[in-house]
Design goal:
Elements (H helix, E strand, L loop, with lengths): L17 H9 L9 E4 L2 E4 L5 H19 L4 E3 L16 E4 L18 E6 L3 H14 L4 E6 L4 E9 L2 E8 L3 E2 L9 E2 H4 L2
Parallel strand pairs: 5-6
Antiparallel strand pairs: 1-2, 3-4, 4-5, 6-7, 7-8, 9-10
Organism: Roseiarcus fermentans
Keywords: Endonuclease, Hydrolase, Nuclease
GO molecular function, one term: endonuclease activity
């Protein structure tokens, strides 16, 4: 009698929830200086932030500063956005509605995000292939991916069934977020 060979199986994967992720940080397993984010239960390293990346983020802050000062909006730079119990990315820039506690009681969720922006230099493939589908899956109404190398802003709107129904690329002109019609960002000026 012959023995059937065993089919090799991949090792089981264990998804972390947000609570376990934070306990790892509290226990020192994740060092405070580590730039990581939780995506579908897995911890991903985030790339270092170069000067052009930081400059675009600062220019975005300036573009929304008046509305923030007037109490019409909040902005969040590289802070968690809790999509579900297993997913908490840290987008480069998020525009949120005003809230008295500034989201001190809990991180904002997908329904809170009026606009999510990812600034991409070395992270372009990750932002497009991993994060963008997640944002669509959770109904983030609008996402901009700022492609530093190409000097364009990719604009994604109308999420449905894990995809965006509308996609455009802009290298110049004024870009107005769909949920924030009073604000327009000069695309060329983002790149300096």
């Amino acid at each position: 009698m012959s023995v059937l060979p065993q089919t090799p199986q991949a090792p089981a994967r264990h998804r972390l929830d947000v609570g376990a992720y934070y306990r790892m940080a509290e226990a020192g397993i994740l060092a405070p200086f580590q730039r990581v984010e939780l995506i579908d239960g897995e911890i991903f390293d985030m790339n270092p932030i170069g000067s052009p990346h930081a400059a675009v983020t600062r220019r975005l802050e300036q573009g929304f500063a008046r509305a923030v000062a007037d109490g019409l909006l909040l902005t969040s730079v590289r802070n968690p956005l809790r999509l579900d119990p297993f997913t908490e990315p840290q987008p480069d820039f998020v525009v949120l509605p005003p809230r008295a506690d500034a989201f001190a009681a809990s991180h904002p969720g997908p329904d809170d995000a009026l606009l999510v922006v990812e600034v991409a230099d070395s992270s372009l493939a990750y932002d497009r292939e991993t994060k963008l589908p997640l944002y669509a899956k959770f109904g983030i109404v609008e996402v901009w991916i700022v492609d530093l190398a190409a000097r364009v802003v990719e604009v994604y709107r109308d999420p449905a069934e894990g995809r965006y129904g509308s996609a455009a690329r802009m290298s110049e002109g004024l870009l107005t977020p769909s949920r924030i019609p009073a604000i327009s960002i000069d695309v060329a000026a983002l790149f300096g």
